[in-house]
Amino acid sequence: MAFPKNFLWGGAVAANQCEGAYQEDGKGWSTQDVTPRGIVGPRTEEPTPDNMKLVGIDFYHRYQEDIKLFAEMGFKVFRTSIAWSRIFPKGDEEEPNEKGLKFYDDLFDECLRYGIEPLVTISHYETPLHLSKTYDGWVNRKMIGFYENFVRTIFARYGKKVKYWLTFNEINSVLHQPFLSGGIFTEKEKLSQQDLYQAVHHEFVASALATKIAHEMMPEAKVGCMILSMPTYPLSPSPDDVIKVMESVHKNDFFGDVHVRGYYPGYMKRYFRENGIQIRMEPGDEEILKHTVDFVSFSYYMSICDTADPAKQIRGQGNLMGGVPNPYLEASEWGWQIDPQGLRYVLNYYWDRYQKPLFIVENGLGAVDVPVERADGTKTVEDDYRIDYLQKHLLQVEEAIEDGVDVMGYTSWGCIDLVSASTAELKKRYGFIYVDRNDDGTGTLERYRKKSFYWYKDVIATNGEKLHE
Ligand code: BG6
CA dist 106 to 99, 100, 119, Å? Predict the structure, then answer.
């Protein structure tokens, strides 16, 4: 049996995509509250009723019911994030909002009651709007101090309840989606490379500082970075294509490399030199970066190709960045190409590069689900397509473990249906649990177990043996 006994099986969500209750108990507005169409449409001045995230799936009020269902599936771990604007409504206050803190106390207690370990993303695409508008998000060095205050507060409060922490969700996505990922208010088109990479530097320092503080305050804690992984294959065997791929992969590896090695790699110094970018470092920054992570976590949905031939540089759909489609692969209804072997590839790639434990904290299929009624009147979804996707990916995880890769766990994305990040729809469902809510705002918010719910339960109960049936 390949999966280790202590393998952390579970599921993942993010606060902004499921909690709703966007102004309850003193919560401030976050960048998500003014992006009703996800990253596809423009942001609004203030929250508008067509923003599906304002209600989400009402997890804020229904988390007990949902965690009970996760426990029924046998989850060992549940990944969620802390909405920064619940704890610090504007982001730059000195004192936290007690009601916000209390909510996560209750949520983590509920997980622990069932023996489910919380895995917490400190910042998942939900920068307080005030920090974005007033400081231009991570472009401003002051963000490090605001983030430090936030992490000290939550480490002090939840240190005894939460062992696994992730500093920033998909930290490399800031290169592609500066507002969503880095709370950078300046329009992407007007943002200079200088400011963008300076923002990256501030996030690196903040992440390493959080790791340092976590280790000081919570000796048992394990801190990971979180990377949007998207293996990139050369479109052809031409050496030009291979070098083009190397360079585009370097742009992503930059993030893991700094987090694991603790210093800037030579290939990025060259890029900065040749593009007139000068990272402003303060005394002490290089020392702080040496506080490296305990494990590397990543999301995996798809792979892409790249080519040096401008005529073939036709970008397809994909998770936040997209790429040149692979002629050998099929795609999901949203155009994301499906490549289970890419997961084995990326696990081996990171293991060979870092020799750090790896955690797959997002993977799954966004699809349109059609609820059906069982003979007894209860509802379900016959989501064999989701089972097929997950099974094929998990078999590749098993292959990677056989290859000798140290894999800590797997949390399937959107283990309960939630609002999509890129398109802000509920129609794009990932869950084992169906939530009765539609994009026109109708629905009872009731929860139903899909066919995949029972399948995943068996996978966990058999520690992966079920995958071979
Ligand atoms: C990842 C994000 O990029 O992909 C999640 O970390 C997101 O927040 C997930 O939901 C799936 O993307 P989408 O756009 O289908 O929700």
Answer: 11, 10, 15
Q: Ligand 1: distance of its center to the CA of 14 in Å?
A: 9
Q: 34 near 53, Cβ under 8 Å?
A: no
DSSP state of 383: -
pLDDT at 319: 72
Q: Which atom of ligand 1 sits closest to the CA of residue 173?
A: 3
- State the Cα–Cα distance between residues 225 and 382, nearest whole angstrom: 35
38: left (phi over 0), alpha (psi -120 to 50) or beta: left
Spatial contact of 153 and 96, defined as CB atoms under 8 Å apart: yes
3-class DSSP state for residue 116?
Answer: coil
Please tell me the distance from the alpha carbon of residue 12 to that of residue 295, in angstroms, as a whole number.
17
Q: Nearest Cα to 428, choosing from 304, 322, 301, 324?
A: 301
Report the chain's terminal Cα–Cα distance, integer Å: 14
| Beta strands 358-362; 295-300: pairing state | parallel
Task: From 55, 63, 71, select the one nearest 10 (Cα to Cα).
Answer: 71
CB of 226 shorter than 6 A to ligand 1: no
In terms of pTM, does the model score above 0.90?
Answer: yes
Does residue 186 contact residue 142 with C-beta atoms inside 8 Å? no
Say what the pLDDT of residue 354 is. 98
Point out the catalytic residue in the list 19, 117, 126, 362.
362
The rounded distance, in Å, linking the Cα atoms of 158 and 379 is 37
Among 461, 362, 305, 436, CA closest to 125: 362
Give the whole-angstrom CA distance, residue 214 versus residue 165. 9
428 lines ligand 1 (CB under 6 A): yes
Q: Using pLDDT thresholds of 50, 70 and 90, give the confidence band for residue 157.
A: very high
Distance CA 398, CA 367 (A): 25
The H or E element spanning position 429 is: none
Domains of the chain: 8-468 (3.20.20.80)
**How many other CB atoms are found less than 10 A from the CB of residue 425?**
18
Share of the chain above pLDDT 70, in %: 100
Q: Is 170 a catalytic residue?
A: yes
The verdict on the CB of residue 412 being under 6 Å from ligand 1 is: no
